[in-house]
Amino acid sequence: MSKLPNITTSIFTVMSKMAAEHNAINLSQGFPNFPVDEKLTEIVARLAKEDIHQYTPMAGYPPLMTKIANLVNRSYQRNIEPETELLVTTGATQGIFTTIQALVENQDEVIVLDPSYDCYEAPILLCNAKAIRVALNDDYTANWENIEAACTSKTKMIIINNPHNPTGKILNESDIEALENLLEKFPEIILLSDEVYEYITFEEKHISVHTRPQLRNRAVVISSFGKTFHITGWKIGYVVAPEQLMKEIKKVHQFLVFSVNSLAQAAISEYLDSVSIDEISIFFQQKRDYFRELLSKSRFELIPCEGTYFQVVSYKAISDENDVDFCKRLITEHGVAAIPISNFYENGKDLHLIRFCFAKDNATLEEAARRLCNV
């Protein structure tokens, strides 16, 4: 008897496997293919010879926790107490899983906004709780009337993802105000804010829950060094939450992971002294703009991208196939892998949209675009 009978192999695994089998350019999974900053690799090489290979304290390497608190303060003018309001995790996914396991109970309901990243539902189901999937509008703006209508006395949590994967949308001021008004009407609901792409925004910065006192006092905020420093394989993230919520989250964390990779924590702690966070969004905006320029002569329609390193495109002018079949044919006939957006919906809603990852070196983007312009 399966505890997750309807959970299958993720679409990311499927498309990456197909890409490898057909020697296609993989723009499906969200990982960069360019080198990590040499400053960081040099720090790792030096620290690897030092006494940094045993368990760190359960909540995190103390110098890193201080640096994270300083980063949150510098970025959002929020003061957090490292000992009671911060937890270093084995990636953002573990932070999300641990938070849901700690705070969601049997028969609770959790509102998830579709299209949604695929790591939210499984931990909800493992709590014997129910994911209530509420679709965004077709332009990927939030329909707050529908979201409020989905809230009941059973609603324990609302999950938002800002900047949003897969769509690249960010919530604007009116969205945040609507969220504040909603949570004021339902004072028992906890907010889980997945902000892993917080430092990859473009014309407008995202409005973090960290900056909103009305929200942050009942919110868990998820961040990712893997996304910020394009070191996804390191699996290092962190969680910020008020003390009363963090106590429960730590109870699960200590038996799920106990402590996170010591060398990685120490290296990031030192690296934070020498890296400019502000340059990250500039770097990725150049990638976005270059990729969009390369695709401008294609038959794909480019959807606005406000943040993340994903570009959603419509292929309506090319084919009326469903998006899964189109993505498979894109691999087999044209040698480029993408992700179908329908997989991010509970009901498989298909708007003939697919997602490319542009966190690649220019040569990869150029060759991918050359192939896509021939579709």
From TrEMBL:
<dbReference type="GO" id="GO:0016212">
    <property type="term" value="F:kynurenine-oxoglutarate transaminase activity"/>
</dbReference>
<keyword id="KW-0663">Pyridoxal phosphate</keyword>
<protein>
    <submittedName>
        <fullName>Methionine aminotransferase</fullName>
    </submittedName>
</protein>
<dbReference type="InterPro" id="IPR015422">
    <property type="entry name" value="PyrdxlP-dep_Trfase_small"/>
</dbReference>
<dbReference type="GO" id="GO:0030170">
    <property type="term" value="F:pyridoxal phosphate binding"/>
</dbReference>
<comment type="similarity">
    <text>Belongs to the class-I pyridoxal-phosphate-dependent aminotransferase family.</text>
</comment>
<feature type="domain" description="Aminotransferase class I/classII large">
    <location>
        <begin position="24"/>
        <end position="372"/>
    </location>
</feature>
<dbReference type="InterPro" id="IPR015424">
    <property type="entry name" value="PyrdxlP-dep_Trfase"/>
</dbReference>
<dbReference type="InterPro" id="IPR051326">
    <property type="entry name" value="Kynurenine-oxoglutarate_AT"/>
</dbReference>
<dbReference type="InterPro" id="IPR015421">
    <property type="entry name" value="PyrdxlP-dep_Trfase_major"/>
</dbReference>
<dbReference type="Pfam" id="PF00155">
    <property type="entry name" value="Aminotran_1_2"/>
</dbReference>
<keyword id="KW-0808">Transferase</keyword>
<keyword id="KW-0032">Aminotransferase</keyword>
<dbReference type="GO" id="GO:0005737">
    <property type="term" value="C:cytoplasm"/>
</dbReference>
<dbReference type="InterPro" id="IPR004839">
    <property type="entry name" value="Aminotransferase_I/II_large"/>
</dbReference>
